[in-house]
Amino acid sequence: MSASSAPPIRRDWLAKTVAGVLLGFTLAIGCSGVFAWLADGMQMSVRAQLAMWMVMPIWLGIFSGVYFFRSGLRAWAWLGGANALVFGALAAAQWL
């Protein structure tokens, strides 16, 4: 395979990376908060530990999956929408 036939490097990897770092972290925090709010039947110590330790696997899963988006703009749009949905659900759960 010659160097001229190799596919070009996509230039939006930086946008995807930043979206995965920033929006992935806030999405993981939001998912942790929704879990902590909805898991009322558990002891407080167990619920807090689960909520705390579930942030990193969720964040890393989002961060590794962000490169499947076609563009950085789509990554920002989808993760921003997911953040709005999760934090809206958290606000609704606390309000109701």
What does this structure look like?
Keywords: Membrane, Transmembrane, Transmembrane helix. By secondary structure, the chain is an all-alpha fold. It has one domain. The chain is built from four helices and no strands. The protein has helices spanning about 15-40, 45-55, 55-65, 70-95. The longest helix has 26 residues, at about 15-40. The mean pLDDT is about 90.
User: What order do the SSEs take from the amino end to the carboxyl end, as H and E?
Assistant: HHHH
Number of structural domains: 1
Distance between the termini: 61 Å
Q: Helical content, roughly?
A: over 70%
Low-confidence stretches: none
Strand content: under 5%
Radius of gyration in whole Å, from Cα? 17 Å
Number of helices: 4
Average pLDDT metric: 90
Structural class: mainly alpha
The tally of beta strands, per DSSP, is 0
The biggest sheet, with number of strands, parallel, antiparallel or mixed sense and barrel status, is: none
Can I get a quick summary?
The chain is an all-alpha fold and 96 residues long.
Could you outline the blueprint of secondary structure elements for this entry?
Blueprint: H1 13-38, H2 44-53, H3 55-65, H4 72-95
Main features:
mainly alpha; 96 residues
